[in-house]
Design a protein that fits this description.
Layout (H helix, E strand, L loop, with lengths): L19 E5 L4 H12 L3 E6 L2 H14 L4 E6 L5 H9 L8 E4 L17 H22 L5 E5 L22 H25 L5 E5 L19 H14 L3 H4 L1 H8 L8 E4 L9 E4 L3 H4 L1 H15 L21
Parallel strand pairs: 1-2, 1-4, 2-3, 4-5, 5-6, 6-7
Antiparallel strand pairs: 7-8
Length: about 325
Amino acid sequence: MPSTSRTWTLDSVPDQSGRLAVVTGANSGIGQVTAEALARRGAHVVLACRSPRRGRAALDRLLAQAPGARAEVRLLDLADLASVRAFADGWDHDRLDLLVNNAGVAMVPFARTADGFESQFGINHLGTFALTGLMLPHLLASPDPRVVTVSSEGQRFARFDLDNLNAERRYRAMFTYLQSKRANLYFATELQRRADAAGLRLRSVAVAPGLTRTNVLTGGANGNRGRLYGALIRLLVRVAFRPTPEGAKTSLYAATVPDLPGGTFVVPDGPLQLRGEPVLRDRERAIRDTATARLLWELSEKLTGVPFRLSEDAARPAHPGVLDE
């Protein structure tokens, strides 16, 4: 098992040459830092973004910082399963080595996705679940596929209610957000269990970034909460949250450490997982709660209409080290 170092930095990311990665929500925050770090170390990175304009701007920033990097933008809206399917159907590379499920929303006013799901559950979990399932054949065509799913340090405070996942009875923004992040951890660990049972080489890892300066509390649907809300949240984020590259460490550690075991949860090693260096944690309730994870998986397949074909037969022939440009 890999050991962590208190001096692990973005410069510790090993060479990624020949690796093909997708990072969702790569136009800002942790996703942008993750995509840029992977590209600087030689990976071919696909920035999967909801907004064409913001995606293009993110790509321009990446190429300005890393001239000659191999990167591209593709449209993906996790709030619309048709968009998720279009992204997967349009995949024209010969494989996918790394999928970083980073995109999400946090504590937004009540809303429904294009498919009628409560937005936090629909985007953070169901969109991520569907994307991973639809990209699975391309992942299994890789010689060393890995899926990294961004959960939250706050997931351990969630009261997970399988009968109210979609705000069927009551909507509380914080409760629903934490529940969706617990769902991310259930998904990541159950994916590993199912891959292991099928004898697949796929590794699934969950991460918590800690308190990080991003626009998740002020952008998107939260951008309509008014000037006072925006000013207060920006002040809080500036004072109490750590810089975005620090929050991206766990994602990059999970995505790039060569001998990292699948099924693990990478979190900051500080108090309450709020800050610190990447460390593996296995004492979370969600990791041990296999019964709930199984029920959530079955429900997610039903709601999204995306069954996971976890078998060697699902993989297309791999061509290690070659990208079909």
